[in-house]
Amino acid sequence: MEARQSSLYFFDPKKVGEDLSEVALELISVEDQEIQSRWFHGQSDTDLFIWSDLNGRVIKQQISFYGQVVEWNFVDGVRTGYIVEDEVESQAINASETVHFDKEPQATTVEMAVQIIEHVYMDEVLKQSLLANFQETAKTTKKSFKKSKFASLLNRLKK
Question: Is beta strand 58-65 parallel, antiparallel or unpaired with respect to 21-30?
């Protein structure tokens, strides 16, 4: 009976979040600006990417888990979607992944992302910033960023 009950709990945000660890930290030069790129990865194929300026302000964040994607950026706000792997006939070539974004953010998917991030081991100030960004509604006022200054940076990060 106990084994059956535990199999009913497929999604464990605490376990997924605690499993994420930082695997890369890079500085990227984009249009005379330095952008910090951070990548957290977990064994459950969960990825968290964070792009911020050198003052620590988050420009874009994206988490993918179980084929779902939740993204926030200061231009578009919160977006949700899913990953589609393009099939390739040859096994020698890796399939490419594409994110198909939903017309409207899916509240359940955003809530799952929030629950995962709540359990990631990282700087608490950064964590609270990520949580606040995901909890805002799409297309809301964009904090204190100068849209014209960062919009071109964001477009380059979308690649």
Answer: unpaired
